[in-house]
Amino acid sequence: MLKNKSKGFTLIELVIVIAIIGILATIAVPAFNNSVRTARVASARALAATINTGVISDFIQSTMSGSGAYPAVTDGALDAQQNINPADPDNAFKSKYVDTSIADNWNFSYTDVGDIRFATWKLGVDASIVVVYAVDITGGTEGSIYNVYFSHQDQEFTSVGGKYTELDLAGGPCAHNNSTPAKVLGAA
To answer: In whole angstroms, how far apart are CA 65 and each of 51, 52, 59, 60, 138?
Structure first.
């Protein structure tokens, strides 16, 4: 009589394969997440550099026309009380220096802190990654000084151009104040 041999894997073989897959997953997932984070920070660095180049270009053009001012952030839709809405998603300044397909990945708003207006782009999928254009709004010297910087969880302030220092910009947006308004650039 012939024995009927069934083909297949034993329970031990299956457990070993599942354990190996689990070990590989625990190694691969953190590496993948780190790569995604690095790519997002690189995107912020590129956006900040592009905005800085546009701001300098506008300054050069305005110097040639006689005013010599960095661009103001004034555009915005009106809210129900007929006030300019600084969180207007269609604000023209949001995509002034970058293609709209890139700008669509960033949430834009602006706010005034003292004599400085902060135009802020926050990455839509990770609001802890922030790009900021800060410009002087003091009457008489409006647009005379600026800074473009980006901020993320590992680095609160990385300037890509401008004369404002981190101390000058205390109170401005940074990566650490996207959920807690009290925590701002320069705060402990």
So the answer is: 21, 20, 10, 9, 21
Inside any domain, residue 136: yes
Sorted by sequence, the CB contacts under 8 Å of residue 98 that are 6+ apart come out as 47, 50, 51
> 168 is in which domain, residue-wise?
29-177
CA distances in angstroms from 143 to 17, 100, 161, 178, listed in the order given = 64, 25, 15, 26
Amino acid identity at 131: V
Answering whether pTM is above 0.70, one says yes
Nearest C-alpha neighbor of 69 from the set 1, 129, 136? 136
The number of folded domains in the chain is 1
The reply to whether 3 falls in a domain is: no
**Tens digit of pLDDT per residue, the chain (188 long)?**
566 666 788 999 999 999 999 999 998 888 888 888 899 999 999 999 999 999 999 999 999 988 889 998 876 655 556 566 666 666 778 888 888 888 889 988 888 888 999 999 999 999 899 999 999 998 878 889 999 999 998 888 899 999 998 899 988 888 765 433 333 444 44
In which region does residue 150 sit, left (phi positive, over 0), alpha (psi from -120 to 50) or beta (all else)?
A: beta
